[in-house]
Amino acid sequence: IAHCTHLGCVPIDGSTENWACPCHGSQFDVSGRVVKGPAPKNLEIPPYEFLDDNTIKIG
């Protein structure tokens, strides 16, 4: 859903508890906060809304 704030690559879920950017190794926690750079900022939170108790609309 989000792009790395370093150069725009798409982070992927690695074998750790963090999301990892395949381009330069930045890591983000499950909330999108930078755990390891070179990314300068946290991941952006996309617009969302709760449609009901079980459904979230993203984008």
In short:
The chain is mostly beta strands and 59 residues long.
Considering the chains and any ligands shown, give keywords for the structure.
59 residues; mainly beta; Rieske Iron-sulfur Protein; 4-stranded antiparallel sheet; two-stranded antiparallel ribbon; elongated
What topology does this entry show?
Layout: E1 12-13, E2 19-20, E3 27-28, E4 34-36, E5 48-52, E6 55-58
Written description of the protein model:
This protein has 59 residues and is an all-beta fold. The protein has a single domain (12-58), classed as Rieske Iron-sulfur Protein. The chain has no helices and 6 strands. The strands form 2 sheets. Strands 1-2-3-4 form a 4-stranded antiparallel beta sheet, with no helix packed on it. A two-stranded antiparallel ribbon has the order 5-6. The chain is elongated. The N and C termini lie close together (9 Å).
CATH hierarchy class name: Mainly Beta
Question: Helix and strand string, N-terminal first?
Answer: EEEEEE
Q: For the largest beta sheet, what order do the strands appear in spatially?
A: 1-2-3-4
CATH level-two architecture: 3-layer Sandwich
How many structural domains does the protein architecture include? 1
Number of helices: 0
Sheet having the most strands: 4 strands, antiparallel
Low-confidence stretches: none
Globular, elongated, flat, extended or rod-shaped: what is the shape?
Answer: elongated
Rg measurement, Å: 13 Å
Total number of beta strands: 6
Quote the distance from N terminus to C terminus. Answer: 9 Å
Proportion of β residues?
25-35%
Provide the structure class: mainly beta
